[in-house]
## 1
Amino acid sequence: MRYLMTHKPSETTPDEKLYAEMAEFVEELTAAGILLATGGLEAGGVRVTSSGDEITVTDGPFAEAKEAVAGFALVEVRSKEEAIELTRRFRRIVGDGESVIQQVFGP
């Protein structure tokens, strides 16, 4: 089962310890074949909406910075519970904040 884990920006300023712990976590998940992709996301983006035949393109940002998604990890695990445990480990490393886990369907 694949899960997309996203997180919102936090007020915590990263330090060398955080970078080291996160690098170790990422290496562990990569070596185990769990981590498929990870990355940060730009604050703005482009919104494309459609209504009938009309397509509208709008430059971001769209939400308050604290509500935007700041980064993601795509993982392949055996269960939802395993995805939750990985997200718990991530939150312990990065500290206070919010993450969302969503199952990814399709090939």
## 2
Amino acid sequence: MCLSPAQCRAARALIGWSRDDLSSASKIAEATIADFEAGSFFPAERALQNIKQSLEDAGVLFIPENGGGAGVRLAKSESASIDTDETETVQYEEYLKNDAPPGAGG
């Protein structure tokens, strides 16, 4: 199986989708999604692929079972960037004073 019920629930939560949102995107009945997420029904592989593809298109990455358990995460958007400029150092006065007792070493 390409998708677990827990991954489906977690993926929807990550992107803030309701079951109705996923139903609209995947063209799978909302009741089918609800039953799948509850673990009481497992749709055909094609339906699971449609659900997974819709979630991936919305920015979810699926993490396969790799010894630590299967999971989900948000894809890093191309517009998101982390400031890695390390040329500026900021020092706070309260961290500059030596408050260790004499002989503390280090």
## 3
Amino acid sequence: MSLVMPEPYAGVLARRSEIVRALRAIVPGEGVIDDPDALRAYESDGLTAYRQPPMVAVLPETTDQVAAILRWCHAQGVRVVPRGAGTSLSGGALPLVDAVLVGMARFNRMLDIDYADRLAVVQPGVTNLAVTRAVEDRGFYYAPDPSSQIACTIGGNVAENSGGVHCLKYGLTTNNVLGVEIVLMDGEIIRLGGRQLDSAGLDLLGVVVGSEGLLGIVTEVTVRILPKPEGARALLIGFPSVESGGQCVADVIAAGIIPAGMEMMDRLAIHAAEAFVEVGYPLDVEALLIVELDGVTAECDHLTGEVAAIARANGATTLRLSADEAERVAFWAGRKAAFPAVGRVSPDYYCMDGTIPRRRLPEVLERMRELSEQYGLGLANVFHAGDGNLHPLILYDANVPGELDRAEAFGADILRLCVAVGGVLTGEHGVGVEKRDLMPEMFSETDLRQQQGLKCAFDPKSLLNPGKVFPMLHRCAELGRMHVHRGATPFPDLPRF
């Protein structure tokens, strides 16, 4: 399937040498990369089906350097694509042939940790897991924990509003970010939010988190840190069918129980994960549910009993309760390694991301199984069951002509199904280029124009990460054009200003 991206500016490409010189004046030393072979490292993010080396990559170290880069590019009409660790699975960091790629890997310092106010100030290149590592000796942690947390960075988490296995109880990135410093496309540096719980005025912080690099480049993030709960117990529950496991999920939530995490894997994912990490997953079940309860010890003991009773009522065939912290961590090790584990059983896989109402889980899983047979491609299901965030892994071989096209068509049908049952196109991976052309499935033309109007308020020249999120590749100047029909404007009696 061909991906249509904005046409490159011929005038910009002709000035490549001038652009490289200007960037080297801003970021001296080895901070500017223009060698074609070296640029291959930046040609894609985690969605490797699409590749395009950037015109040039620049690795700033300070906020002032980021501001100077954007200010110069804005004045010269040069496009910019921000990049964190490159773990995005939606193509959000896919370069453009005529764009400057701004890599934020050198912004990797912890700036402040305030245990009294329960917050940490970090640069965007700090990895997700590093935040927890920095505060765990004092009994704190950072709650959002994507499966890629060892590699993904806080800046990328902010861009995609990442979640993780504990997002059901503790929220996504947006619920755990208190403030950001962000550089706009014209080089202006602004701060949104801060150390306080809530800021006055418009919720621009809420707009920036999840904006996928379309509004500015984040250079500092203030995150919430939480004290570790007194105790945590995990249940490993096997079911004879994916549908019975899905019904158990719905019944747990309906009972008013909010686990710290509730994840499910189907048979293919279970076998792949067990072969990869060998943590003792049962191999004679069709679905495996991991449910973690945390809080005071008495609460954990009570709730694990409640969940176990609900699981048995739904036909659970195996049920194990973690005996200690090491076993609880082992239960999660397989789930966290599920994506790379599936990579061992298929030459390629296409990782999807969509969210549905929990009560529709059994029927959606059944329909996905039918689509798997229809397209003739394998499917492994790994998902955040508690909040209905599905991560189907479509198995294919890129060396077989037409299989990638079938995988993309299969994935598009899964996302259409999510919307049709009352869900949304993404839960945490973002829209990027992967879901861009499916946005009309969920939003009307009016909705999309309003969203792009917000983008244009921040970036009137559409220079920042163009070609992402919005399916209509037109510029901001075209967005507000008035429709004239047979020489007449709408409502001609109204004064025009």
## 4
Amino acid sequence: MDDEDLARDHTGEHRFKAFRQAEALIENRRPLDALKVLQPVLEAEPDKPSVQLLAARAYFHSAQLNRAERAFTRVLELDPSDHYARFVLGRTLQRLGRLVEALGQLRMAWAMNPVPEYQDALSEVNARVHLQEG
């Protein structure tokens, strides 16, 4: 292994540690700190679904909903089968007041993975849409 390989390994290791640190910060309800730690990883690996998903979660939890929407949408461009990204995109659209769009994403998430959390969110948004229509 030459010096260039070592440098790449170190950089990869550093990005991995930053990613894990950002995950821990989100879990500890510190999404803004997570975004600071994650920034170099986002710059180095903008097309990696896991990186975009973590950034999207941090944006969502820090109420940066337009950024969250863009990041979740990017995740789904990279991996259309990510039911969790669809679920939280639906929740993001719900928080933005775009209930019909939210309903579509939540329906897809639930169809892909019918867990109670997805069903609850789907039922809640569905009820709100019906109230607006009625």
